[in-house]
Amino acid sequence: FAAVVSIFATIAASWLRKETRMTWSIIVQAAVEGSRSAIAVGMSCAIIGVIIGTVSLTGLGLNFGYIMLRVVGEGQLYLAGFMVMLMSIVLGMGVPGVAAYVIVSTVSVPVLIQAGAIPMAAHLFCLIYACLSNITPPVAMSSYVASGIADSDQTKTSLIAVKLGLTGFILPFFFLDNPILLLGSAADTPLLLTIRAVLTSSIGVIALSSGLQGFLFLKLSIIERFLLVIAGLLFIETRLSTDIIALLMFLAIIVIQYIQIQSQKKEKNHEEN
User: Fold this and answer.
1) CA dihedral of residues 115, 119, 120, 126 (deg, nearest 10)
2) Nearest to residue 171, comparing CAs of 141, 219, 225, 127?
3) Distance from chain centroid for Cα 139
4) Is the peptide bond before 119 cis (omega within 30 degrees of 0)?
């Protein structure tokens, strides 16, 4: 329904300006091109259906959940989080976000709570990864639809989507061990601890994004990227010592880039003079 309304809304909106007005020939041409794109997406959906059917009919997802309950013990929060992440992505394949969350949460939430997570963090953790399954190969429904619209290669589109969303795959681990970030218990938490948690997590996300994408203020070297990724991962830990080490690493990269910027400005001024 939404797709049909969007098509008619696009045609109607084009008639508001003479430069963008769609004639009948343009509408027919757009319909033909849209049908061709839909064929590629439809073939992908058919293949995806086989994968989804295999997972659901064999009970692989639920069995994996029960195995996790036996393997993961109390206090193994990061191990539990990693396993739940994998299961959420698998069970969320080809399923809308809310439905995927309902499927995943029934098995995964008890695992995280048993490992030491609070209920709110456990539920949000499952929800985020269930939604991220839509851009994760091999069943990246959102990426496949986007590639059909952009007329791009489906595999490359999926891989680029994962690359751009890598920080999103790591972010849930921040609040899994540090529920202060969810602000659900902000009234019972000292203000300074809340401010510290928000600041360190924000800097950690910037460090991770910059390290993974290879750019901060300037293009980063391999060593700088490695240090920023390590700094971002250290910010996940709630200990003050790891926060200080990560902050020093992050500030060191900023200072190096600042010196490089100033050096480039001097060279540019020297060439102009």
Assistant:
1) 60
2) 127
3) 15
4) no
Question: Which CA distances in Å does 202 have to 40, 199, 272?
Answer: 40, 5, 39
Selection from 259, 184, 183 nearest residue 224 by Cα: 259
pTM of the shown model: 0.64
User: From CA 165, how far away is CA 80, in angstroms rounded?
Assistant: 21
Is there a contact between 228 and 216 (Cβ–Cβ < 8 Å)?
A: yes
User: How many whole angstroms separate alpha carbon 127 and alpha carbon 97?
Assistant: 7
Contact predicate 258/224, CB 8 Å: no
102 contacts 112 by C-beta, under 8 angstroms: no
Q: What is the largest CA-CA distance in the chain?
A: 74
> What single letter denotes the amino acid at residue 264?
Q
Answer yes or no: are the C-beta atoms of 229 and 246 closer than 8 Å. Answer: no
Q: Which tens digit of pLDDT belongs to each residue from 140-197?
A: 777 777 877 777 877 788 888 888 888 888 888 888 877 777 776 555 667 787 788 8
Domain boundaries, the chain: 1-165, 178-273
In one-letter notation, the amino acid at residue 136 is T
Give the whole-angstrom CA distance, residue 72 versus residue 77: 8
Structure tokens at 205: 């996300």
Instruction: Mention every residue, 6+ apart, whose C-beta is less than 8 A from residue 196.
Output: 243
Residue 234 CA, chain-centre distance (Å), reads 19
> Contact at 8 Å (CB) between 155 and 137?
yes
CA distance 125 to 168: 11
